[in-house]
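User: Can you predict the 3D structure for this chain?
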Amino acid sequence: MGCVMRLIPMGGKNMTQKPILSIADMSIVFSSPDEADIEAVRQVDLTLTPGKTLALVGESGCGKSVTARAVLRLLDKNALIQRGSITFEPKGEKPVDIAKLKQDSLPLRAIRGNQISMIFQEPMSSLSPVHTIGDQIDEMMTIHEGLKPKQARERTVALLDQVGIPGARERADAYPFQLSGGLRQRAMIAMALACKPQVLIADEPTTALDVTTQAQILDLLRQLQADFGMAMLFITHDLGVVAEIADEVAVMYLGDVVEQGSVFDVFAAPKHPYTQALMSSIPKMARKADRVRLSPIKGTVPAPKDRPEGCAFTSRCPHAFEPCPTIRPARTDLGNGHHARCHLLTRVPVEEPA
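Assistant: Here is the predicted structure, written as structure tokens:
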């Protein structure tokens, strides 16, 4: 079945609102005792604005989850934010550079799960199997807001009801394995929203769900964002999901943001060859009945250690030419907040001989 996308320009939102989270020039390296440091994320710039959703899209292995986890400093022990900043500036408070906070420090713990929350891809690997759903959500509010157990439980029941879990009070006493995949994901969303965060990071929260449940979860996230006014960073490899939920999209390849702009601009006129290839790879119904036409991207994403000095997409790009492997493309401003990194955008056309 073909993928149907609805491209709707997001109106009615304050487009000039000040960003609440700004990632600037961030690079992340992984160290190894046997090899040289490997750069997994290269000089990434992203901004999140209250009430809006930025989708970070790309194939597996392109650095999307590493970028997202860096915001909450949930990286592996051998990972290091080598350069750049992650500036968090909630309304009425002084800005703080999360990249400079000490791991497990009180300021960082005050932000994690409280002001910035995260929904993970697979609830069963993130929820404790030996504690009830209610106890896990209660704990968030007793730790961060100092609520008494009875107060926390009433809030938990209200949250479970708000995210559409039937019989919320009884379900609060259930263990994760007693819930379906869709209900577990709703429970995780409730946990992420327990302390009314200002930023929500959703790391492929619908990937393991069937299409009907996926649509319900996307609708729920849209409604909750409208209710809470949160900024949302949505990680996915599904362009159909991007079209459904996002205001802006950043296309990531091998740790590099190669194109970024409004969903409408990027989808209507993609400029980077990788973005164009992603768009072409969406299944389309062919003219003959019961046929789906596929245009897969040739090759695979290289390992980060094999990234060329220049454009990361060089080895798979059908338009690559001389400077691509050795010189990193500059970020070209295409207007209206749309920009891309590609030498084709600055290439001077060669005049044909008379």
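The radius of gyration is 21 Å. The first strand starts at residue 21 and ends at 30.
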